[in-house]
Amino acid sequence: MLAILAVMRGDARTSLLWLALALAVDALDGPLARKLRIRNLIPNVDGAALDLVVDYLNYVLVPALFLYSFGLLPEGWELAGAGFVLLTSLYCFANVNMKTADHYFVGFPAVWNVVILYLWILHSPALLNAVVVVALGILTFVPIKVVHPIRVREGRDVTYASTFVWSACALALVAMSPRSPWWLLAPWLGASGWFACLSLRRTWRGSGSSAR
Fold first, then answer.
1. Is the dihedral of CA 126, 18, 64, 29 positive or negative?
2. Residue 210 has pLDDT above 60, yes or no
3. What is the b/e burial string over 199-208, where b = at least 16 CB atoms within 10 angstroms of the residue's CB?
4. What is the rounded CA–CA span in Å between residue 55 and residue 57?
5. Domain residue spans in the chain?
6. Which residues contact 81 (CB under 8 A, 6 or more apart)?
7. What does the pLDDT look like over 73-128, one tens digit per residue?
8. Position 191 pLDDT exceeds 60
9. pLDDT of residue 209
10. Beta strand extents in the chain (DSSP E only)
């Protein structure tokens, strides 16, 4: 709600910071719930369903509003672009085969909060942004594999280090925007490259079994 209110005020930076906090919580809530065995403690509450509701709000709805409000898409196409994000993401969240057994996402995992961060920090042209949004929406339905930086075991040490570097640089870049110094962009994009390499390698290896 705070991220939405920031969008309504025209405060992109604050909205992104609230989304960053939500992303950090999302990274920790699953491991914490499993460690505390919440499923056994509160058996009448479906944490997975709750997680999907919260994730759709933070990963899809707020970013769609962000796309609509801050000129990231070509003039006149803001509503269509935001609607496209909302609709294609429904399949991702309803897909019973959204993850492989080794915890890779199948298809683009509707992490639009991360997408708007790249578009905003890199100051990419609106037409290019539209192409990116359409391409990622289509990839929701394509069985590519996308790394989950917390749960995937493959290259875990490097992945954890890359996640820390990516997060620290992203926060600094948001705080310093509209400036994007190379000494922050370089490690940020380098960490992004590691995630991309893991995802491409896993996609090349094949489908594998699925697990919700």
1. positive
2. no
3. beebbeeeee
4. 5
5. 2-205
6. 67, 68, 73, 130, 133
7. 999 999 999 999 999 999 999 999 999 999 999 999 999 999 999 999 999 999 99
8. yes
9. 46
10. 105-106, 145-146
The β-bridge partners of 210 are 100
Measured on CA atoms in the order 40, 41, 43, 48, is the torsion positive or negative? Answer: negative
Torsion, Cα of 138, 143, 147, 148 (10° steps): 90
Best CA proximity match to 112, nearest among 142, 148, 86, 93 = 86
| Residue 55 structure tokens | 């994730």
Task: Decide: 3 and 112 in contact? Cβ < 8 Å.
Answer: no
pTM for the whole thing? 0.92
**100, burial (CB in 10 Å: exposed 0-12, middle 13-18, buried 19+):** buried
Query: How far apart (Å, rounded) are the C-alpha atoms in residues 112 and 41?
Result: 33
Q: Which two tokens stand for residue 129?
A: 């942004």
Task: Compute, in degrees rounded to 10, the torsion defined by CA atoms 114, 119, 123, 129.
Answer: 170
- In DSSP notation, 110-158 reads --HHHHHHHHHHHT--HHHHHHHHHHHHHHTTS--EE--TTT--TTHHH
